[in-house]
Prior knowledge:
The protein has seven helices and seven strands. With about 230 residues, the chain is an alpha+beta fold. The chain starts with a helix and ends with a helix. α1 (about 1-10) crosses α2 (about 35-45), α2 packs across α3 (about 90-110) and α5 (about 185-195) runs antiparallel to α7 (about 205-230). The protein folds into two domains: about 1-115, no CATH class; about 165-230.
Amino acid sequence: MKEIAAALVKAQREFGPALKTSTNPHFRSKYASLDACIEAVIYALNKNNIYLMQLTDEHEGGVKISTTFIHESGEQLSGGTLFMPASKHDAQGFGSALSYARRYSLMAACCIAPEEDDGNQASRTAPVQAAPKAVPKAPAVVPKQIVGSDSPWQLKVSTEEDNSENWAVAVAEATSFALEMTQSVNDVNNIYRINKVVYDKLKEVDGVTYSMLLDRFKTMKETFKEKVDEYVPE
């Protein structure tokens, strides 16, 4: 594994972020598409003589995919197998699961994360010479799919979708922003309660994203519980 290990180290120095260049046509929320994820790493991998391959396996409940790196020496390294359940057992459901699986498998194997496109990404035609200086992020702007920072925490997300993947991304981003503004367990519960019809629809069209959001709700409630437990009266 000596040859491919050395080549991957060199390639990783030139990986870019998976830019959020795709836009939800209804809610104008951005996400990193499969194209953006591949673009972030493919040049650096090929430059260092590494072929990127993603293989799929059949599964009656969804899609199984593995991301593998193949060096010109013949050495191979696999990122493991990822299973993504299909929300619907039809072409749309399996297609959506495949897209999700390929994106997440690739980002995990290459250890990259999605980022906003600020228009200042360095060219990937040359290695990065030095780590960029940290730039303070601008204050968060309330997304258009959220009514505002006050209760009742109503999300402006329709229960109808033309593209289930884009719609699920919009729901996830709206929920994440709302959760960041909560200040109590009651706030967290209100977000779910008031938008239950949206989450019921999300569970139907994209069970994976729905499960991820449930975990986020649970984590937020545990965070506030820890704050209460740590309080010591004078």
